Amino acid sequence: MTIRKGFDRSDAAGPARRVRSWRLLGDAREGVAAPARRRGRSARRGFDRPSPPSLALLGAPRLRIDGAWHDLPPSRWVALLAYVAHARTWVRRELLAVTFWPEHDQVRASWNLRQCLQTIARSRAGTAFEREPTRVCWRGTSDLGDFQSYLEAASWQAAVATYRGPFLDGLEAVDVGPFQDWLGVERGDLQERWRAGVLALAEERLRADRGGAALDLVHTLLRHDPLDEVAVRLALRAAAASGDRTRGARAYLAFCEALRDELGAEPEPTTEALWKELTSTPA
Q1: Domains of the chain by range and CATH?
Q2: Phi, psi values for residue 243, rounded to 5°
């Protein structure tokens, strides 16, 4: 994608998903304060108060408003919103300017940033997006915060269920160098945390004599990375525990083939020992 000089309004509002974008952005006749005016006194007293906006950052980005989820387009304003929400604190404007408009001088980058922030403020997400002269902050919630909290509490099942897919899936289309560098690092880190959570949950199920459930989990890792030898070893153990030698053999043989084809290597001795143990045990 060629980065055009100046601020591109189509980039701020997203690609040509007109109906969806209109619903997210609203119009001048129905701003974010209109529902509260219609509710009258009940809104002022705290009744029927809408829940704060929430962002889903794991997988394709989405925005939840009053319980309804809306897909967000792979545009620069969504990337900037997600970048700020990921920080979970105040982010200085000059950092955003150099991250999202590195090809421009400070004056032009700052102008582009102001336009982009106005787009966010006009969107439905704007009710939870706080702006100050030198910094901005996301005041809503996000699944990323939940995911990290579950991991810290060793709530493996909740963490694995929260991870819908790669961090900001689809936003690699926003072809801005510094943002892409940041996205690659963060996506890899979160993916590795998800992998650790899946392995921990599989071990937990294996200890509870749920070898089949553990094997199901391990296969999600192998679909993502066929060369994950730690996952293959766990698959062999789970197959032995559940008696499902067929699935264990399928996982091991597919791993060996990928290992030879891509790296010209053979399984580690520990992995081979688990394979021999599985195949030598009477059915």
Answers
A1: 1-45+55-207 (no CATH), 210-283 (1.25.40.10)
A2: 80, 10
